[in-house]
Amino acid sequence: MSVGDDMENQMPTKHSRGIGSRGGDQDGFGPPTRPVAPLVYAEFGDDDELSPQWTSWLIPMFVVANVIVFFVVMFVNNCPKNSESHDPNHHCVARFLGRFSFEHLRNNPLFGPSSLTLEKLGSLDWYRVVEKHQAWRLLTCIWLHAGVIHLATNMLSIVFIGTRLEQQFGFVRIGWIYVMSGMGGSILSSLFIRKGISVGASGALFGLLGSMLSELLTNWTIYSNKIAAFLTLLFVIVINLGIGILPYVDNFAHVGGFLTGFLLGFLLLARPQIKWFAREHMPQGRCVTPKYMPYQYILWLLSLALLIVGFVVALVLLFKGEDGNDHCHWCRYLSCIPTSGWSCDSV
């Protein structure tokens, strides 16, 4: 179980801004396969109640939507007309694709459109979100991708992780986690990064990953091999967040999406106790087991409070024009750590 690179590659634009491509090449880690006591449910004929299976259709629809949006972006980009006509030395890649050909690799190494096209179609840009009051960019940016490589790695990861979650918990809960995590990543990114534009579904992707961790924790008592699953998932998360310290990688989108999904997992993915399903088979007058454990209720309340406070405070600070780096001087190292090999001044 491993999750590969999830990088946010940025490149300079005409106005010294960069593209942040929230990407991910992730071999997903699904929730632990089966609760501890399926045989208990076999006795009552209720094994399916413990781990209900829905047909996954929303995650595939998200993938299809992202692919369609990418084709629309490339159609609008029209590299041969909009780039080569302005700069004769600018040569598009894969010209046989016509208006769907890619920008020169010096401008976009991910085989995709120009930064100006992404900026026009809804990428995340602090100036436009705050100064131009275009808050809708907090949502639209998660449906845009910087290139074919970026799109392919993100979509493969979403299919691998999201399909399993949707089969276990249904499209409503996983859909909420996906969208809200994407917005959470966009909000935190806007608070700390002002010099570039950013696109991609990595905030939503990290939200699904965070929800898997909280789902494991809140349903701890019903899983087997829980320690191994926890350590594996923790390793996957640390590696992917660690990749975010590379330059031109918007790790704030990753962190924001992960924290949002982590809290939403406690709210939406708690499973009832095993004995609660057997309540219909209990003798009359016998005390019925509560549906959820006391600690699950506590985690639910804490997560709800933190989620509401976090979104309200972050949005207030963002639209007041506050720079998150002024309130957290060390937070910049979450996104880029300067070394002798690179500088973070332009990030």
From TrEMBL:
Gene3D superfamilies per the record? Rhomboid-like (1.20.1540.10)
- Name this protein carries in UniProt: RHOMBOID-like protein
Predominant location category: membrane
Where, by residue number, does the polypeptide cross the bilayer? 57-76, 142-162, 174-193, 199-220, 227-246, 252-270, 297-319
The record's listing under PANTHER family reads: RHOMBOID-LIKE PROTEIN 3 (PTHR22936:SF86), RHOMBOID-RELATED (PTHR22936)
Q: Which reaction does it catalyse?
A: Cleaves type-1 transmembrane domains using a catalytic dyad composed of serine and histidine that are contributed by different transmembrane domains
EC class of this enzyme? Answer: hydrolase
Q: Where is this region: Disordered?
A: 1-32
Where found in the cell? Membrane
EC no. given is 3.4.21.105
